[in-house]
């Protein structure tokens, strides 16, 4: 009998610190203060919160800081509730389940320079990446921090400001900087990354359209709406491990169909931008609608919250 892989760890809220206007910084540690599972720079974790909520956040700390996970959370009154729970209910000493870290930024040695563009709280994954790059002696990077007034997370930004790696763009005293000017023209040794509000992401996507896809990394706060497919048809979803088959109705998501029969798949954004519901597929022809998986990952995986099937039958490794 094969062992069941560990996918979630138990953590304790060790510290809650002020990160600026409407922002709290949470440090999560192992109950016995052992090392936590490793992560790549700018990786994400899913927090299992009170009330059954699961929410995804970027890690802010250096992967070498391996006895804690640090996330910064902005209280969003118009959000989906996760930030409200963290700000208003979670206290020091509380237990939070955390899914194993996933994703992160590709800081390959083939790239010698990096340009990061962070809008407000969207700076979080780049704080982790910048700390890792500095520790590795790879100092050729610039973080453009776009914020209205005093930038958030001043304590985490301070070392980067001191070393001259951060350019602060204060939009309270002028317009947002020209994203195309920050991006510049495609260069073989440069990689780009951006995280922020939709309007900024749209400008960044336009500015980087001529760059190689593997040199551009984008993270969104909110998933874009899925287009309605007028030609959608039902298909059979076969589950190889559990030896079950279900019919996914036209317009229904795989996630919904799986949930209906009691198959528990971790999910957070439900819009193809966080990657928490990644599942391997074995046979068929998936239709990928996510904004997370690389072409290589799509050869074996899909996100059940948004993926579809181009054929009458699709087999998942579930």
Automatic annotation (TrEMBL):
Q: Which InterPro entries match?
A: 2Fe-2S_ferredoxin-like_sf (IPR036010), 2Fe-2S_ferredoxin-type (IPR001041), Beta-grasp_dom_sf (IPR012675), FAD-bd_FR_type (IPR017927), FNR_nucleotide-bd (IPR039261), MRET (IPR050415), Riboflavin_synthase-like_b-brl (IPR017938)
Keywords assigned by UniProt, alphabetized: 2Fe-2S, Flavoprotein, Iron, Iron-sulfur, Metal-binding, Oxidoreductase
GO MF annotations, alphabetized: 2 iron, 2 sulfur cluster binding; metal ion binding; oxidoreductase activity
Would you say which domain of life the source belongs to? Bacteria
SUPFAM superfamilies tied to this protein: 2Fe-2S ferredoxin-like, Ferredoxin reductase-like, C-terminal NADP-linked domain, Riboflavin synthase domain-like
> Do you know which PANTHER family this protein is assigned to?
CARNITINE MONOOXYGENASE REDUCTASE SUBUNIT, NADH OXIDOREDUCTASE HCR
- How is this protein named in the record? Oxidoreductase
Lineage per the UniProt record: Bacteria, Pseudomonadati, Pseudomonadota, Alphaproteobacteria, Hyphomicrobiales
């Amino acid at each position: 009998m094969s062992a069941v892989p560990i996918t979630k760890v138990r953590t304790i809220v060790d510290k809650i610190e002020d990160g600026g206007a409407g922002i709290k910084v949470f440090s999560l540690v192992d109950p016995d203060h052992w090392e936590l599972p490793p992560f790549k720079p700018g990786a994400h974790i899913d927090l299992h919160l009170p009330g059954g909520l699961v929410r995804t956040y970027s890690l802010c700390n250096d992967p070498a800081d391996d006895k804690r996970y640090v996330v910064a959370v902005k209280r969003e009154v118009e959000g989906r509730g996760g930030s409200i729970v963290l700000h208003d209910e979670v206290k020091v000493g509380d237990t939070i389940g955390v899914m194993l870290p996933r994703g992160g930024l590709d800081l390959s040695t083939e790239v010698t320079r990096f340009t990061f563009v962070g809008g407000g709280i969207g700076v979080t994954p780049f704080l982790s990446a910048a700390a890792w790059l500095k520790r590795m002696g790879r100092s050729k990077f610039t973080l453009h921090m776009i914020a209205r007034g005093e930038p958030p997370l001043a304590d985490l930004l301070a070392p980067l400001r001191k070393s001259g790696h951060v350019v602060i763009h204060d939009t309270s005293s002028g317009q947002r900087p020209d994203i195309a000017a920050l991006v510049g023209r495609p260069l073989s040794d440069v990689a780009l990354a951006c995280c922020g509000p939709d309007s900024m992401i749209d400008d960044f996507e336009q500015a980087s359209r001529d760059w190689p896809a593997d040199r551009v990394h984008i993270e969104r706060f909110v998933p874009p709406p899925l287009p309605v497919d007028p030609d959608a048809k039902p298909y059979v979803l076969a589950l190889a491990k559990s030896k079950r088959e279900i019919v996914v109705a036209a317009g229904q998501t795989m996630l919904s169909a799986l949930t209906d029969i009691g198959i528990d798949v971790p999910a957070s954004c439900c819009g193809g931008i966080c990657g928490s519901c990644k599942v391997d597929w074995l046979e068929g022809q998936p239709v990928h609608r996510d904004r997370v998986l690389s072409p290589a990952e799509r050869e074996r995986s899909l996100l059940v919250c948004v993926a579809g099937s181009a054929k009458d039958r699709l087999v998942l490794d579930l």
